[in-house]
Write a structure and sequence with these properties.
ten-stranded parallel sheet; Udp-n-acetylmuramoylalanyl-d-glutamate--2,6- Diaminopimelate Ligase, Chain: A, domain 1; eleven-stranded parallel sheet; alpha/beta; 3 domains
C-alpha cells in the first residue's frame, strides 16, 4: 500500500510542506524511517533527530515547522502525536484483512442465540443460548460468549476471550486475547469456630454481572470480575492495559486509562478522566474523584477526594510498626519545618 502526502495532509487536517503527489508506503520511527516512510516528532526534546532523518515525510508541531521544512517534506499539525494515532488507525483499516461476516461452520452456536448477519463468529468459538452479537461485531477463535451475554455493534473479541453469562459490552470495543470478563469476584465468608468446620471459607455466590460501555479497550489477560449483587461497571472510553485485575463491584468512570499490572480491589470507585500508572494498587471500597493521576507502583490506601497527581508506596513491615512509621512519615515535612525554626532561634 502507498499513500500520497496530499491525501494524508487532508486526512490529518495539517499543512503540507512539499509535493502533494509524493508517496509513502509505510509508517516508521523517525530514527529508522527511509524515503518511503512517514514518521512523526511529538516532542521538541528529540529535535536533534529531525535533521538527520531520511524519512519521506515527518509530522511535526508548528514550533518545528521551519526545522522540518529545511529537512524536506512535512505535515504540520497542532498535535503530532494525536495525528500519528489517527494515521495508524487509517493505515490499519486499509492494510489488515477484515473478518468475513458469518458464522464459521466449526463454531458452536446454541439455540436461542441471536447473531446479526453482519457479525463474524470464528472457528471454535462458543456462543451460548440467549447471547446477542450485534452487526459488525467479531467473535474470535476459541472465544466464549456466555448465556445472555451481549456484544455491541462493531466490537471485536480477539482469540480466547471469555464474556461470561449475563455480561455486556457496548459498541466499538476491543478486547484482546485471553481477557476474562465476568469471572466470579473474590467473595468468601469465614466459618468461625473450632473443629472441622472452623477455619473454612464459605463461598458467596456472585449474582451480578459486568457492564461495559462503548469505545472501551481491554488488554490481553486482563480480568474483570462480576459483581456480588450489583454489577461491576466500566464506563465509555475506558482504556485498560494487559494483566489488570478489576475486582467485583468496582466502578470505573468514562475515559479513564489504566496501565498494566494494576490491581483494583472490590467496590473501589474510580472517577472519570483518571490515569493509573503500571503496578499501582487501589484498595477496596475507596473513592477516587475525577481527574486524578496515580503514578507507577503507588499504593492507594485511602480515598482521593481532590483532583491531582498522587505518588507513593511504603515498605512492608509488621503492621503495628508500619502504622506508626506511616503516621510519622506523614508528619515529616511539618517536623522538618519545626526543626528549622528551632535552629534559626538557636
Amino acid at each position: 500500500m502507498s499513500a500520497r502526502l496530499g491525501e494524508l495532509a487532508a486526512l490529518l487536517g495539517g499543512e503540507l510542506i512539499g509535493d502533494p503527489g509524493a508517496e509513502v508506503a509505510r509508517i516508521a520511527p523517525l530514527e529508522s524511517a527511509g524515503p518511503d516512510a512517514i514518521s512523526f516528532l511529538a516532542s521538541a526534546r528529540y529535535q536533534s533527530q529531525l535533521a538527520g532523518s531520511t524519512a519521506g515525510c515527518v509530522i511535526v508541531a508548528p514550533a518545528l515547522r521551519d526545522a522540518a521544512a529545511a529537512r524536506g517534506a512535512a505535515i504540520v499539525c497542532a498535535d503530532p502525536y494525536l495525528a500519528f494515532a489517527r494515521l495508524t488507525q487509517w493505515w490499519a483499516a486499509r492494510t489488515r484483512r477484515a473478518p468475513e461476516p458469518g458464522v464459521d461452520a466449526r463454531a458452536v452456536v446454541e439455540e436461542g442465540a441471536l447473531i446479526d448477519p453482519q457479525a463474524s463468529v470464528a472457528a471454535l468459538a462458543h456462543v451460548a443460548r440467549g447471547a446477542r452479537i450485534a452487526a459488525g461485531a467479531v467473535v474470535g477463535p476459541l472465544c466464549q460468549v456466555g448465556e445472555g451475554a451481549v456484544v455491541g455493534e462493531g466490537t471485536v473479541l480477539k482469540g480466547r476471550v471469555t464474556l461470561a453469562d449475563g455480561c455486556r459490552i457496548g459498541a466499538r470495543g476491543l478486547v484482546h486475547a485471553g481477557a476474562v470478563i465476568g469471572a466470579d469476584g473474590f467473595g468468601f465468608a469465614p466459618v468461625r469456630g473450632e473443629g472441622t468446620e472452623g477455619g473454612r471459607w464459605e463461598k458467596i455466590a456472585q449474582l451480578g454481572a459486568v457492564v461495559i460501555g462503548d469505545d472501551v479497550e481491554i488488554g490481553a489477560n486482563t480480568c474483570i470480575d462480576r459483581g456480588a449483587l450489583a454489577d461491576t461497571l466500566v464506563d465509555d472510553g475506558v482504556k485498560i492495559d494487559n494483566l489488570v485485575q478489576v475486582g467485583h463491584n468496582v466502578s470505573i468512570g468514562a475515559h479513564t486509562a489504566i496501565a498494566g499490572n494494576v490491581g483494583i480491589a472490590g467496590s473501589a470507585q474510580i472517577g472519570r478522566h483518571c490515569s493509573i500508572g503500571g503496578a499501582a494498587c487501589i484498595l477496596g471500597h475507596l473513592r477516587i474523584v475525577d481527574h486524578v493521576q496515580i503514578t507507577v507502583a503507588t499504593v492507594v490506601t485511602r480515598s482521593i477526594l481532590k483532583p491531582g497527581l498522587y505518588s507513593g508506596a511504603f515498605p512492608f513491615d509488621d503492621n503495628a510498626a508500619w502504622e506508626k512509621n506511616a503516621a510519622t512519615l506523614r508528619q515529616l515535612h511539618a517536623l522538618r519545618e519545626r526543626l528549622r525554626a528551632l535552629e534559626r532561634k538557636a
